[in-house]
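EI: anyone free to look at a 325-residue chain?
SC: sure, send it
EI:
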Amino acid sequence: MRIGVLGAGAWGTALALVAARAGHTVTLVARDREATAAMRATRRNERRLPGVELPTAIEPVAEPAALERSELVLVAVPTQALRAVLVGLPALAAPLLLCCKGLEQGTGLRPSEVVAAVRPGSVMGALSGPSFALEVARGLPTALSLAFPDLATARRIAGLLALPTFRPYPTDDLVGVELGGALKNVIAIAAGIVMGRGLGENARAALITRGLAELARLAEASGARRTTLMGLSGLGDLVLTATSLTSRNTSLGHALGQGRPLGELLGAGAALAEGAFTASAACTLAGRLGLELPITDAVRRVVAGATTVEAAIAELLARPVPESE
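SC: here you go
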């Protein structure tokens, strides 16, 4: 097949490598013409994935119009940029596999809901799970959830991308897969704060566990299946993200926990941590559903500068002991 990949960051490039290894011809669309020219000349994306060779089956381009020939398009742009990117795309008949995680700031929409608003009638799914881009690019074993509302479509697309070291598990729970991938980033910021403050492994384990409960509660109230959140796109991704400083979200929380200034961490040029945007959107969604998410709300207030790390921790520890787990 001809597979298009929209977005040539580390994740988009890693997914292009997966598609090429699966035997497909890949069009990799980058926003930066200079970076595109460098990839074509050196056969590397040295800035995003240093040391990883791009096979000749991958064609880096800077023109989104090149996607018109694709039979499947993997969308790997940041969630907060998704709406603007979609507006600038040509008409596409191919299914869209959304490989971005988060909720749109201001609207609280999941990526698939953004697509439905901008390009109604599109066939779309989501890919999410525990997956650091560099490990995927190096061909290390990785398993993810791949969701389309139609399970047969999910199975077909999973089969197109499957490799011995890249295992997409098909599901029809699109809501659960998207919310799992979005909300785990918020909990990862909280876990990073625990690490940065030196509160210990007991505290981090408790934080991750209670964070998973918040994640599952919100997803289930939104129509997801709880079992999805106990799988790769929920628990699996949360465990990976919230236990490693390789994660940008955990690293952000770690720096906050160590007392680094908020403006320095979230200002221009800082590494993108989607959880910083998703926290606010998740709290808005929870409010509409009548749910209480104390950890998520604490992260929202910290990244908004509405409270300090110390005050947020004190408030969480002072919450009444529940009658049952």
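EI: Residues 215 and 292 are 11 Å apart (CA to CA).
SC: 👍
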